[in-house]
UniProtKB/TrEMBL annotation:
Protein name: Transcriptional regulator
Lineage per the UniProt record: Bacteria, Pseudomonadati, Bacteroidota, Flavobacteriia, Flavobacteriales
Limits of the HTH araC/xylS-type domain: 200-310
Pfam families: HTH_18
Superkingdom field: Bacteria
Transmembrane segments: none
Keywords: DNA-binding, Transcription, Transcription regulation
SUPFAM superfamilies assigned to the protein according to its UniProt record, in alphabetical order: Homeodomain-like (SSF46689)
Stored InterPro entries: Homeodomain-like_sf, HTH_AraC
SMART domains: HTH_ARAC
Length: 310
């Protein structure tokens, strides 16, 4: 699975059509302070043609979203429905997909790196906070009153980031901390689990995780997930359950599907690049050329070298 950096987040959301991309390289991106930014969802939706879907993936940054609108959040075997107002606390620990269900969306979201919060003299250790735990239920339904209170914090952040106050980032860290503590007092939304759509959703999310590792475009690129267990951990389900779901949907085990996709990519690299076999093996996650050769021959009945020459 590709891990999305803060830079890639801007490129993916705003593309080349949106002038908001320029915000990426402003003063917030200074390495001395980490990265922080805040967005008005309604304005961003208008500027970026309403394409607010967040694909299922792992991210290197944290995100807090105040949501006003009908949305679905998918992660693991759970689907959370935000019917009207909610708040979402996303961390690098939990890959998820966020899908607006209509165009009537408003609210705010902020993105920040761990470095940004660590600069505070009273810094929170984000890894130890329950709300950013890998087992966290991180989506919360909120009342109109709670929405207004949280919106006020976001509005203060939005005003502060545009100010020339010398210590504004210290103040912004305090606002983020307030949001986190506010969230940890909330009760999570009950998700839909193991319903008639769960099987197809898990299968779909697995395939999306698998395909996001490809294509291999550089000899410096390497697969991050290789085994059925690694995929199951990223989907937050037991590997036996993942195998059962995929066997039911595709007739194949998780390992067979992974092996087939790696073999497909290996064939492409052998035919369409001049990389040596050692480089290809390394990109595909094999420590030794011999391991790659044995794998490829088991899958195709021919060695990588003979396949390239044929």
């Amino acid at each position: 699975m590709t891990t999305i950096s803060i830079n890639e987040f801007y490129k993916d959301i705003f593309k080349d059509k949106c002038t908001l991309t320029e915000l990426l390289f402003n003063e917030q991106n200074n390495n001395d302070i980490g990265h922080f930014n805040i967005f008005n969802i309604a304005e961003m939706n208008s500027a970026c043609k309403g394409k607010l879907v967040m694909p299922y993936n792992r991210r290197t940054y944290y995100k807090i979203s105040l949501i006003n609108g009908h949305n679905l959040v998918d992660y693991a075997d759970q689907q959370i429905e935000i019917k009207e107002k909610g708040i979402l606390f996303a961390s690098p620990r939990i890959p998820y997909r966020y899908s607006p269900q209509n165009e009537n969306q408003s609210g705010y979201f902020c993105v920040f790196t761990a470095d940004f919060m660590h600069k505070s003299k009273t810094a929170l250790n984000l890894d130890t906070l329950p709300i950013f735990s890998s087992k966290s239920d991180f989506v919360f339904q909120i009342t109109d009153e709670q929405y207004n209170e949280i919106e006020h914090i976001f509005m203060k952040m939005n005003n502060e980031i545009q100010s020339d106050y010398a210590f504004k980032y210290d103040l912004l860290r305090n606002y983020v901390t307030e949001l986190i503590h506010t969230g940890q007092k909330l009760k999570p939304i009950e998700g839909t689990k193991e319903n008639h759509n769960a099987t197809s959703r898990i299968s779909s999310l697995f395939i999306e995780l698998l395909e996001r590792q490809f294509p291999i475009e550089s000899i410096n690129q390497e697969l991050q997930l290789r085994t059925a267990k690694e995929y199951a951990e990223n989907l937050r389900i037991h590997v036996n359950h993942l195998n059962k779901v995929l066997k039911e949907v595709t007739g194949k085990t998780t390992t067979e599907i992974i092996a087939s996709r790696i073999t497909q990519e290996a064939k492409i690299l052998l035919k369409q690049t001049d990389w040596n076999i050692s480089e290809i093996a390394n990109c595909l996650g094999f420590d030794e050329v011999a391991h790659f050769s044995n794998f490829f021959k088991k899958q195709t009945a021919i060695s990588p070298l003979h396949f390239r020459e044929s």
